Amino acid sequence: MDTTTLDIESMRAAAGRATAVLGVLANTNRLLLMCQLSQGEKCVGELEELLDLHQPTLSQQLGVLRSEGLVNTRRDGKKIYYSVADARVLALLATLYEMYCPQAGGENP
């Protein structure tokens, strides 16, 4: 990449967006929620069971993800379903998984 052709203001704006996403993902519960959602849409009850998070904590963290634009919501009757809103975040989660999560049959990082 030729950094001499990059506009510093564009770089600053991109860095701001990246640090905002990284800041949100720097919370263990939010990162775990996003990892679960990277596997597909899930309702609150499913997330609660999968992550063993109690309702107040789960609702608070989902609220942060929603307010930061990292998740989409869909209502079906009384249930609210969540999904990852941005393909770039999915790519980031995949990279984090590859770097930090134990691989089947391989060594743990």
UniProtKB/TrEMBL annotation:
InterPro entries: ArsR-like_HTH, HTH_ArsR_DNA-bd_dom, Metal_resp_trans_reg, WH-like_DNA-bd_sf, WH_DNA-bd_sf. Keywords: DNA-binding, Transcription, Transcription regulation. GO terms for molecular function: DNA binding; DNA-binding transcription factor activity. Residues 8-104 form the HTH arsR-type domain. CDD domains: HTH_ARSR (cd00090). The keyword Cell cycle does not apply. PANTHER family: ARSENICAL RESISTANCE OPERON REPRESSOR ARSR-RELATED. NCBIfam families: HTH_metalloreg (NF033788). This is Biofilm growth-associated repressor.
